[in-house]
Design a protein that fits this description.
The chain has about 200 residues and is α/β, with parallel strands linked by helices. The protein folds into two domains: about 1-10 and about 125-200, Zincin-like (2-Layer Sandwich), CATH 3.30.2010; about 20-125, no CATH class. The chain is about 50% helix and about 15% strand. It contains seven helices and five strands; from the N terminus they run ββαααααβββαα. Strands 1-2-3-5-4 form a five-stranded mixed beta sheet. α1 (about 15-30) packs across α4 and α3 (about 85-95) crosses α4 (about 95-125). The protein is elongated, with a radius of gyration of 18 Å.
């Protein structure tokens, strides 16, 4: 996790195993990314594993509700994958029975995927995340946020997710989901982030 604080703002950039596992289960369920969640697929490809008795519409509805609960917060969650029984029980106890049924036989692989990507992000991100933080800080300075006397302090969270396209999505009040490929591309990153900062910090 990367953290920086300025006047009137703080910035956190990290990847979240909870979101990684949710996206992995979305791919397993064969849910169309255009219908729910960030509208592009995971990298690498994950083969659909829904069985003949799965209720596809119900899984899509449950997954969308779960995803909203994971992405509408504006504070960084604890970055740790819960133990298998906890998440499975949570899905069952909170109204996601079809997701829990799908997750149960594939939980080990989903957990492994989340752990491996988190480790990969921690290793590779040192080469480019500090530059992205510099660019966000510069954009805030250019917008006048850094020295605005009456600006409300806000926490910006940028969550890296391994999606195939160089895209970013603003969710919640000041949480940005950014694909891995976007975070490695300075010019494209600035093009996505600049208008989002105008929404987060309206003048």
């Amino acid at each position: 996790m990367y953290f920086r604080r300025g006047n009137n703002w703080s910035l956190t950039i990290y990847t979240d195993p909870h979101l990684l596992m949710a996206l992995y289960l979305r791919e397993l369920a064969g849910v169309n990314p255009a219908e729910v969640g960030p509208n592009c697929r995971l990298e690498p490809d994950v083969k659909e594993r829904t069985g003949p008795h799965s209720v596809h519409g119900q899984i899509k509805q449950e997954w969308g509700s779960w995803w909203d609960s994971l992405t509408t917060h504006d504070t960084a969650p604890e970055v740790a994958v819960p133990v298998p029984a906890n998440l499975l029980e949570w899905l069952e106890d909170n109204g996601y029975p079809e997701l829990a049924r799908l997750a149960r036989p594939h939980y080990g692989q989903a957990t492994l995927f989340a752990h491996q990507h988190t480790e990969d992000f921690e290793r590779r991100s040192r080469d480019y995340i500090p530059d992205r933080m510099d660019e966000i800080e510069q954009l805030l300075i250019e917008r006048g946020i850094e020295h605005a006397a009456d600006a409300m302090e806000k926490q910006i969270s940028v969550i890296e997710v391994p999606l195939k396209e160089p895209r970013a999505w603003l969710t919640g009040g000041s949480t940005i989901l950014a694909s891995s490929v976007l975070l490695r591309d300075s010019k494209a990153f600035r093009g996505f982030i600049q208008p989002m900062l105008t929404i987060i910090f309206p003048i």
